[in-house]
C-alpha cells in the first residue's frame, strides 16, 4: 500500500533536484523501495551537481568498491578552483557593501544606490552578478546557508528583473534546505505576488509557474507554525484551486490534511467536500476518501476503515508524517461530531467501536467532545447512552448557512467549466 499511494513520482517533475533529495532520503528510511534502487536514484539526481565528495560515496556504495573513476578527482579539483575564483570576485563586492561609510550612504531606492556605487566606487553589473554566480555555485555544492546569503545580497543590489526572480527561487530553495522557515515563508509570499501580478506570455506559462510554486510551498507550509492556515488560504483561492484541479490534483491530499488538522478552519469543510467530489475521477486516496465516506456517504464504518488506511499513508508521506497523531485525533472528532448530528440517541459502546477505542477510552472521548464542542447533550451512564437535544435552526439561519461560500463555489465552478 505504501508504494501505491507514494506521491514522490508525481512531485519530482516540479521540484529542483536538491529539493528531491530529502524525499529520497525519507523513502530510504521508510524502506518503501529496494535500497539499491534509491541509491542509484540519488546518484543520478546529484551527478550533475558540485557535491563531488558525496557523489563519490554513493558511487562506492553502489559498486561496492573503494575506488572511483579518475574524472571524480578531476571534477573535484575544478570545483575547488571555481569556488576559489568566484569567492574572490564576490568578496570584492561584499567588502564594498560592508564598508561602514557605504552603509551610511545607502538609501531605500535600489537604483539610486546602484548608481551611487557605480559612480563613487566603480561597481559594475558584472561585479553584482558575481554574487548571483557565487550563490548559485554554493547551492550546487550543497552550502545552502551560504547560497541564501549571497542571493540575498544580490537581490539587494541588482536591478535585473529576471535574475532577481531566479535568485528569489534560489533563495527559497536554499532556505527550505537550511530549514530557515521564517525566511522561506517570506519568500513564498514574495513569489506569489510576483507570479500573480506578472504579465506572462501565455496563460500556460503562468499555470506552470503556479504549479511549481505550489509544490515548493508545501515544504514551508508543513514546517512553519502558521503554515497550515496559509496553505488553506492559498490553495482554496480561485487561481490556485483552478491550478490544482487542472495540473496537480494530488495536491488535494495536502490541502485535505491541512483542513482536517486545523480545528479553527472547520468552516472550510463544505467547500473541500465539493472539490474532492469534483476531482474524485482524477485523484483519490484514503485521505480524500475518508472525507467522502464521512460527509458524502455518511458511512461511519467506511470512514473508520479509511482512517486506518490514512495512518499508513500519512506515516509514509515526507510532508505529512509529523501530522499523523493530530490527523487521527481530529478525524475522530469529525466522525463523532457528524455521528452526533444525525442521531438523537447514541450508544456509547457503538460509537467507541466506530472510533476504534475501548469502552473506557470511548467514554472519556465523548465526555471531552461534549465539553469541547459544547454540544447540547446529556450522558446517561446507567444506560450507557448519549441523548442529543434537538435544536431547530430558524429559516433565517438556514438561508445564511446555505449562502456561505456561494461566491467561492461559483468561482470554482466557472474555473471547472473553463477547464473542460
Automatic annotation (TrEMBL):
Domain (PCI): residue spans on this chain: 220-393
One MF annotation (Gene Ontology) recorded for this entry: translation initiation factor activity
InterPro entries tied to this protein: eIF3e, eIF3e_N, PCI_dom, WH_DNA-bd_sf
Pfam family of the protein (one): PCI
Location in or out of the cell: Cytoplasm
Cytoplasm recorded as keyword: yes
Any one cellular-component term (Gene Ontology): eukaryotic 48S preinitiation complex
Subunit structure: Component of the eukaryotic translation initiation factor 3 (eIF-3) complex.
Record-given protein name: Eukaryotic translation initiation factor 3 subunit E
Source species: Funneliformis mosseae
Amino acid at each position: 500500500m505504501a508504494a501505491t499511494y507514494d506521491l514522490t513520482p508525481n512531485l519530482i517533475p516540479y521540484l529542483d533536484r536538491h529539493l528531491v533529495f530529502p524525499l529520497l532520503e525519507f523513502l530510504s528510511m521508510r524502506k518503501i523501495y529496494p535500497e539499491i534502487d534509491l541509491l542509484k536514484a540519488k546518484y543520478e539526481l546529484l551527478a550533475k551537481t558540485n557535491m563531488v565528495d558525496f557523489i563519490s560515496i554513493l558511487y562506492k556504495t553502489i559498486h561496492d568498491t573503494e575506488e572511483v573513476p579518475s574524472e571524480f578527482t578531476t571534477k573535484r579539483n575544478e570545483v575547488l578552483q571555481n569556488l576559489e575564483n568566484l569567492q574572490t570576485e564576490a568578496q570584492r563586492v561584499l567588502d564594498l557593501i560592508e564598508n561602514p561609510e557605504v552603509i551610511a550612504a545607502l538609501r531605500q531606492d535600489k537604483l539610486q544606490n546602484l548608481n551611487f556605487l557605480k559612480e563613487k566606487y566603480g561597481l559594475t553589473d558584472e561585479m553584482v552578478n558575481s554574487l548571483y554566480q557565487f550563490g548559485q555555485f554554493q547551492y550546487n555544492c550543497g552550502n545552502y546557508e551560504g547560497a541564501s546569503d549571497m542571493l540575498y545580497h544580490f537581490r539587494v543590489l541588482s536591478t535585473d528583473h529576471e535574475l532577481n526572480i531566479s535568485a528569489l527561487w534560489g533563495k527559497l530553495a536554499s532556505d527550505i534546505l537550511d530549514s530557515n522557515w521564517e525566511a522561506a515563508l517570506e519568500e513564498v509570499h514574495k513569489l506569489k505576488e510576483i507570479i500573480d501580478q506578472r504579465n506572462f506570455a501565455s496563460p500556460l506559462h503562468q499555470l506552470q509557474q503556479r504549479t511549481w510554486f505550489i509544490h515548493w510551498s508545501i515544504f514551508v507550509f508543513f514546517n512553519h507554525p502558521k503554515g497550515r492556515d496559509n496553505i488553506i488560504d492559498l490553495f482554496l483561492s480561485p487561481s490556485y484551486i483552478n491550478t490544482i484541479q487542472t495540473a496537480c490534483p494530488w495536491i488535494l491530499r495536502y490541502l485535505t490534511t491541512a483542513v482536517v488538522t486545523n480545528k479553527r478552519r472547520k468552516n472550510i469543510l463544505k467547500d473541500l467536500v465539493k472539490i474532492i467530489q469534483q476531482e474524485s475521477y482524477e485523484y483519490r486516496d484514503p485521505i480524500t476518501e475518508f472525507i467522502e465516506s464521512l460527509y458524502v456517504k455518511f458511512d461511519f464504518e467506511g470512514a473508520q476503515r479509511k482512517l486506518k488506511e490514512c495512518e499508513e499513508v500519512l506515516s509514509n508521506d515526507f510532508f505529512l508524517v509529523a501530522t499523523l497523531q493530530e490527523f487521527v485525533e481530529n478525524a475522530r472528532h469529525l466522525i463523532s461530531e457528524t455521528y452526533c448530528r444525525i442521531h438523537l440517541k447514541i450508544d456509547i459502546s457503538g460509537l467507541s467501536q466506530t472510533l476504534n477505542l475501548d469502552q473506557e477510552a470511548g467514554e472519556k472521548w465523548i465526555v471531552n467532545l461534549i465539553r469541547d464542542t459544547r454540544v447540547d447533550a446529556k450522558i446517561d451512564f446507567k444506560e450507557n447512552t448519549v441523548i442529543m437535544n434537538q435544536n431547530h435552526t430558524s429559516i433565517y439561519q438556514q438561508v445564511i448557512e446555505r449562502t456561505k461560500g456561494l461566491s467561492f463555489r461559483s468561482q470554482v465552478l466557472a474555473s471547472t467549466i473553463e477547464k473542460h
